[in-house]
Task: structure prediction
Amino acid sequence: MDQGKTRSFGLGCDMPPAPRPLAIASDHLNPSSTVCERLRALVALTKPRLAFFSVCSGVSGLLVARPEANLILPAPLGIALAAGGALSFNQWWEREPDALMRRTADRPLPAGRVSAGTALGFSLALSLAGCGLLAATTTPLAAAIAALIIVLYGLVYTPMKRRTRWATEVGAISGALPPLLGAAAAGAPQHPAAWALAAALLFWQMPHFFAVGWMYREDYRRAGFRLLPVIDADGRATAWWSAGHAGLMGAAVLIPWSLGAVGPIYGTIGILSAGALLHAACAMLRQQNDGRVQPARRLFLVTIATLPLMMIALVAETLF
Result:
């Protein structure tokens, strides 16, 4: 789950600072950085907002699998550490492309607030700590799923972004696994509600990624990424694929609801969320007057609004 971290919307908005030289992004630490700045830079490497969503989806899987589980503290911490490790590794790997993109040029590595070596060591330490904590305090399967997420996100999805438009689908798989990680941490990896949430997450991510990719397609093109919005000439394919995945998300909610794997609260919220995504994607397909940037922005905002509602509905239905 990587492309949804935006600071301003639309290519016509105020731009972040111009990219810094690649030598800074690759190797060197800015000597003027203070200790506090370097600590903040390390935290920023973990992409806290994105990591927070991973923790929330993981905790959702844990709670629906075993509401009485006495694992609330170690499991979220382990998930947070593993997520931070994967996201830090992503920033380490993409430090040179990040220096070429306006929206990412001020990230810690391109800005020289942390060295490449420190970032790599930090990401490895977080990854090992997260997997180790999960193995020691929950289950080996939870640790294995965390390791799989790190490998898929850091070693498969990240390099694929500059090679094929199908990288987004691989990234979506890693982003859909946290609910299963949480269920495994609770000792119930087979719980149908956790699988239902993972399936919905898998398809929810695609409109989210595609909307951000379309808004920042020039940045991605400058950095050499070959994502669908980059190779899509007019945005129609991006809108169609977004609409298709919104429909699949609806099926991923409706099928487990019909089978009794989830209840009516989650089912209703999930179907409404999928409908909202489908409506926003269709609006992006119809509206062409501003290069589809405004409808892509609205699609992005709808994705941000619907995911928390779905997780809250699922957990509330389980606990109450």
